[in-house]
Amino acid sequence: MMIRNKLRAILLVLFAFIVGLVALNFYTFEKLKGDAPAVNASGSLRMRAYQLAWLSARLVSADADTAADLRRTMAAQIETYDRILAGLRRGDAELNLRPASDETIKEQLRTLQPLWEEYRTDVFAVTGAAGAEEKYAANAVVAAEVVSYVTEVDKLVMAYDEASQAKITASQKIEIAVIILSVLIVGAATYLIITQILIPLAMLTASFREVAG
């Protein structure tokens, strides 16, 4: 093989390795970036659950005008809550949510869905209550339920966080393997350049000098 072809082959191998390394970094970054909206969305469910309980408590003693505003706000919050949960399960492009792929996350979403439906029904019971006594009774159910419900939401947040951390750990291991591989490839390329190009070139130069002499 001519020296030029040897050098070209070595450069092609190094170029392919660099392209593969860059592609791997982009893939890892894209996977982790996709997790961030889901982690934030699952965390917002906790805040929204407490907010619904707070709005429910306000509704009990609110006057007619304030009560109407509170009911509209609660209905909007519930609609958003439903959309976030659906997006976490099936994906939602507008919310930048991807369908859940981790089995632990899927299982916790399945556990959370009926609990949310029960909590939502109890919140609607407050908005639909007529007399003061009925409102107090319905709100007492929501107040007693919110802590246990949020505990299950926390499990979902932890599942997302653990899945993200697992991806980060796997990415770190891959990066270490890639660094080791890159050292080996650079070492092999250096060896090939020295033995297949520089040494023959030096011998060829020496032979030319002998002929010239």
Report on this structure.
There is one protein chain. This protein has helices at 3-60, 64-90, 103-128, 132-212. It is an all-alpha fold and 213 residues long. The two termini are 28 Å apart. It is rod-shaped and about 115 Å long.
Quick recap of the structure?
90% of the residues lie in helices and 0% in strands. The chain is mostly helical and 213 residues long.
- Biggest sheet, open or closed, and with what strands and sense? none
Shape assignment: rod-shaped
Structural class estimated from helices and strands: mainly alpha
Helical content (DSSP H or I, runs of 4+): over 70%
Q: Helix count, per DSSP?
A: 4
pLDDT under 50 segments (min length 5)? none
- Distance between the amino and carboxyl termini: 28 Å
